Structures
1.
Amino acid sequence: MLPDVGSVRPWADPGVIELNRLPMRVPSTAFPTAAEARKNAQVDDGDASPWRRSLNGKWNFRLFDSPDSIPANAVIKPPSKSWTRVNVPGNWTMQDTGDLPQYTNVQMPFDGPPPSLPDKNPTGVYRRPFKVPASWDGRQIVLHIGGAESTHILYINGRWVGYGTDSRLASEYDITDFVERGDNDIAVVVSKWSAQSYVEDQDQWWMGGLHREVFIEARGATHIDNVICDAAYNHVEGSGRLDVTAMVGGFTAPTAGWRVKTRIESLNGKQLAKPVTGKVPHAYFVPMRFFGHKVEASFSLADIEPWSAESPRRYRVICELIDPDGQIVEAHAQFVGFRSTVISGNELLINGQPAWIFGVNRHDHHPTRGKAVTLDDMRADLLAMRRHNITAVRCSHYPNDPRFLDLCDEIGLYVIDEANLEAHQYNTSLCNAPAWRSTWLARASRMVERDRNHASIIMWSLGNEAGYGRNHDAQAGWVRHADPSRPLHYEPASFHDGWLDGGRHASDVVCPMYPTHEDTAAYSGDRPFIMCEYSHAMGNSNGSIADYWDTITSTPGLQGGFIWEWKDHGLLATLPSGKKGYAYGGQFGELIHDGNFVADGLMSADLTPHPAIQEVEWVYRPVTVEKKGTKLSIANRRSFTDLSDLAARWQLNIGGLVTASGTLDVPTVAPHSAIKVALPCALPEDPDAHLSIVWTQRAATAWAPADKVVASDQMQLRAPKSAPLPKSTGIGARSAVSKLLAAPIELSIFRAPTDNDGYKLMPDMTKQHGIGGKALTSWQERGIDYNPAETFVDHNHRVDVLADGSEVHHHVVEVPDSLDDLGRVGVSFQLKSGFDQLRWFGRGQLENYPDRNRGAMVGTWESGVDPEPYLVPQEFGLRTDCRWFEFVNSSSGAVVRLDVLRPTSMHISATRFTAADLYVAGHETDLAPRKTLVVHADVAHRGIGTASCGPDVLDRYEIPTGRHTFSYRLSVK
Ligand code: GAL
Ligand code: MG
């Protein structure tokens, strides 16, 4: 049995959240001098301090079946040869230890009820030696565990030290009395399951292990224990106010004579005000007159530059601790940014201005390291976000590594920091249960205590999907008192009690998930409306995101939201098929799982963008242009900066060719305002004319080089016009095209279901629980997925072969009223092998769909044949509104061309897969690309919607029943 706590079993008691753990603090490393502190102010550089040592690296590791089955020797005796070695930070579930990841959404992975635990509870014992240098004699030695999933017990040199919970926040322990100078031994026992698992029931992989950094630190016998910086911005005066509280701690209460000197400076070291030196109060024994060993320094700063995501201006605070002899004994540095976040009426104001929330949700994820993300991983995520105009991120659903917040401060992103608290399966019961009250309070309060210095955090979130109960109001009360400067966010507060008045105590914003477009448009509450989740990016998705933004930008109180979500969470593994690939739920042999619902990101797990990013980048663009009569209206959607950092060009495109272009001279456009300029060209006479305005950044940014396109808008100046239909010559010779066909032209009404049409791998989710899109079920019930299209619709097809060998096809399709949810109406055929290049005049460049094509400009595009971009194969690759499309065999030079005759355009795709190929494949690695080119040309194609979690395709993007008539010419060039 584990020494000391083995019989107490704290992991099984939801009320025991810590034993002997030090209070949470702002991460801050002490350095001997201000100069060193200044140089290493990023948390990441803490190892540069002589008083800090990383314990990251290889640890000895052994897995047990439960904490109860661990013999005392496992934490006392040296580990034997049979132990393995694992990386810290790391999840053992990703390191061949025999215990694997498991994915569930709402359901818990084991039977309840709370707080009962399964007999099998994989528990890892981590061991390693470490040294305590002689130079640390007389100091307080602290061990820092950055994150352990789910709970951990600490032993030093075989003696029990403490116990901690909350897998997404650090725990620190005073180990001074447990260590010796020189060689020491540490054991951390991490249980995968605990009572706390019931409040860490997020829609994610269950992992296990020490997934964040571990280090030891030597704090002075008297030291600065915490540096709290409250930096406020007064936008009326343009001034800032900074209140710094340095808390002094140590082995014993400080005696008289200790002082803290605090200064505020710019990042290049310029002092902004006179330093403030304050005495550390020591007379704690004077009844009722002692307020703590803290030194407060306040600065009023005229003319300060505020922090915002647009200009993330940071400053530095330095605190020096001075002993009674006048010696500086240590120094700390903290970054601050002057910013205000205030709710005024139904608007959330940053520095006095409303700001659009162009947001995404983000989980920690890496395809081989699981939850152990590095600084580089985090930076790569954030820079990619900014490249695509994303300027806000919700830490769904837990506090990230503190360095993530440093990066958001530095790069410029607004953050919702969220407490690690989700009780989705027991949604409405635990939030009122007294046994869980302390964990509720600790998870929110410790987050605030750790993260409060970050300018990027604009709201605190109390957690996710944990009902709404009195435990939440306890959390809210604590947070409001501790930090009155930031509003609160908690989605279920208004979900359970209504958008108008629900849960005001726990949420200052109405922040729903996946509301319908109608409900969104009808919002009339007096709080800001910011969707904490919307536009579910599972597979081929994000339909109608531009329609949401039409509503957002035209309805008072609506301010944007956070797309669900940033990345797919595939894990690189050997799949049941024996192939290597990104695994989703169920592919590790686990019986309880939620399949590919874990893959619902704008990016794949390795940060390859999915095509919908094109639309997101457009929807979130910082500047919009509209044609108003003979003028262009240019609107700046930023809150603080004009558009002078962007260069605008115009381009006139007629019939697919650029006929004129130039620089657009744009006078200053103040934030949140619009100006009008004259059209840069005369209105052309020819049909099918478009004017595009393209904005590029003049200078390089941290995330993109100069000239990167940041916004574009396209206006139709003249509609396309149909040419007269070619007359049949009646010759009837064999056409040139027919020789290149590998499969004949056939009517097609079935598309390989997208995740939004239905979960093809999890049919019960829809059939039994009514979740997800309904289209797939209806196609399957009718047999549309397997039977020829003509079984369901009347089809008349006439072909004329012209003298030049081209073919003109005329189709009339009658869709009966009962088939009101078809995937497509069109034709498909295959071209012989060798066709590998595509050219088209239509929307591009990336894949686009009728309800996701506003960011896809009309023009003449070229590309190779798209690979299938989604983890679970599904419909992909469409280009809407194509006037013509060319299929090129780049080695033979052969070109097959499709000209649309009636109507003026069709939606076309050319891939290596038939709809059936995609439909039957359960994983991207199951696909075998054909050598032939599979072409679909649709006169109508169903929108994409987001029914996998949220509204289905809007009515106007469904395929109407009744008659569909279309004609096109196929020729060989
Ligand atoms: C929300 C939840 C997320 C995720 C999403 C669906 O309900 O907050 O964690 O489950 O739905 O992917
Ligand atoms: Mg959930």
Note: The chain has 13 helices and 53 strands.
2.
Amino acid sequence: MKPLLEHIANAVNTPFFLYHESMIKSRIEDVLNVFSTVDFQPTFAVKANANPFLLSVFHAYGIGADFISRGEFEASRAGGIPTSKMTWNGNVKSEDDMLFFSKQGIQNVNIDSIGELQKWGHLKKNHNVPLPSLFLRINPSIEVSTHPYIKTGMKQHKFGISLHDIDTCLRIAQEVGLTLQGFHIHIGSQITDSDSFEKAYSTISKLSRQYGFTNINIGGGWGIPYFDKKQLDLQQMKSFVTSLFSHFRIWCEMGRYLIGEAGWYIVRACENRESEVETMCITDGGMNHLLRPSLYKAHHSFSSTDPIPQKKSVRIMGRLCETGDILVPSTVQNCPKEGSLIAIHQSGAYGFSMANHYNGFPLPAEVFLSQNGEWTIIRKAESNTCFLDQCDSGERYDITH
Ligand code: LLP
């Protein structure tokens, strides 16, 4: 792997993101297998990774797109995904976007609140445009074990409609002439215990029977093994899915599970600085490209092309002006030699998609490694001054008008 990585690094410069086709395919096959006994309509949650080339890989397997914004919508289109295979999620939706996406012919929308339901009623009354299929996102009040920032299914969270308000929603829908197609649920992200999904899936299947819906959108949330190596039990998931969903059409919006382990953030070790307790390996990457460790204290695993044995622990750091600019927290592991390449694992999901221009560094390249060993640049690195592009338009406004 070292010669190949060096070869790519020479061509695109570090840091960069690298994705491996075989891992993507194997995860797609895992998911398709879990749902093989039910009527299944998968979409990929574009927020996890919006690279159009990768979206086209999902599209080749019949996987549609779950998008949030016009940007993610355009990325999905660029990946060849037809609007008839797109689901729109969004915590708050503008009427302008509602009209735009309806005109584009998207397939489904998940309604997040009573206020939003009323807006759809308004749109129907005022515009003669076919609406997408309407799903009601419910908040089932289920506690899950994951970072607090990515739990979404409890009463105190801003997402979805409480179970007590379902009847009100159905009444409003009837009054404004809307037909709802089903319920949607998403209890959080990076969940590796299957019991939480069993609770969520049973709740939504029971409610759907009660209200006579035949479509269910189960969201995403499936966790992957990071440093802790905790894995979701797919056998169990298959048994819940088969027993709970056999009479339904099931939609999903899976992000991390499909792409997380298929991506690495590749950085170069620049300097090893010693403290009494550990070696701090400072790289040319940073939290500007891989924010998860700083934002959620996520612990990704790593490997390097030239590890040197040592007794102390090692911490992999970025080069930004923040003490919290950590890529991998303190770990007892061989230290990358200065000048070697380091692969931060599990970086395919919420890596590039959360990258930013902090400290004025450009966004990095993305590279795709095919099963046959060929590699392709699927996004070029930005120029050093790209973040200045929209500044100083020269327009002046007079505050007296
Ligand atoms: N559906 C909805 C409504 C969502 O909000 C999300 C993720 C997904 C599907 C996909 O979830 P997944 O299968 O990827 O868990 N930035 C965080 C993760 C935020 C997830 C936001 N919503 C992280 O890096 O861990």
Note: The chain has eleven helices and 20 strands.
